[in-house]
Amino acid sequence: MEISCHLGDITTERVDAVVNAANSSLLGGGGVDGAIHRAAGPELLAECRRVRAERWPDGLPVGEAVATGAGRMVARWVVHTVGPNRHAGQGDPDLLASCFRRSLEEAHEVGAASVAFPAVSAGVYGWDPAVVADVAVATVRQTAPATPGVQEVRFVLFGEAVLAEFERALGA
Predict the structure, then answer these.
(1) Which one of 33, 58, 128, 134 is the catalytic residue?
(2) Where does the Macro domain start and stop, copy by copy (predicted)?
(3) Helix (H, G, I), strand (E, B) or coil at 19
(4) What is the DSSP string of 96-144?
């Protein structure tokens, strides 16, 4: 598996699947979640409502992931995951690792060969970008053997400081 990182807009990545740092409602929000919902259009919201009705009526749990179509985006799928919120006392790195592991597993299950990840929980959820980078890179590397169909993972990041942490983690 090829793993890379760069600054960019995750909504325009030419990959099979884009990972959404979603909230448990799956109905859109701010940050990456809001950007993905805006780019994907109403088709994504309709799919998320269906997922809520059929599979996760109480909302997607922290650390879990679920795939939907990507609506109007270039990507074919959106893999939604709910990161832990440090401000709400969710400081267990295993929960954060679960986001990356379960997202990669979901991408593999739908047949995605390429996946773009944001820095899940490094924004308004208050996790230190260095910790997110270390957990994300280690988890993707550990999960790679169980997801052989995924050939490429890109971490698409929103700022120079976060990019620097992912570059450090990838070089470690």
Answers:
(1) 33
(2) 1-172
(3) strand
(4) HHHHHHHHHHHHHHHT-SEEEE--TTSSTT---HHHHHHHHHHHHHHHG
Q: Each residue of 72-112: pLDDT tens digit? A: 999 999 999 999 999 999 999 999 999 999 999 999 999 99
**Catalytic residue status for 33:** yes
Q: In whole angstroms, what is the distance from residue 172 CA to residue 29 CA?
A: 34
- Neighbouring-strand partners of residue 79: 19, 67
Q: Do 87 and 28 form a contact (C-beta atoms < 8 A)?
A: no
What's the total number of domains in the chain? 1
Query: The domain spanning residue 162 has which CATH number?
Result: 3.40.220.10
Q: Tokens at residue 2, please? A: 């090829």
What domain range includes position 31?
2-171
Residue 84, classed as helix, strand or coil, is: coil
Tell which phi-psi region holds residue 126, choosing left (phi > 0), alpha (psi between -120 and 50) or beta: left
Q: 16-67 pLDDT, tens per residue?
A: 999 999 999 999 988 999 999 999 999 999 999 999 999 999 999 999 999 9
Contacts of 54 (CB under 8 A, 6+ apart): none
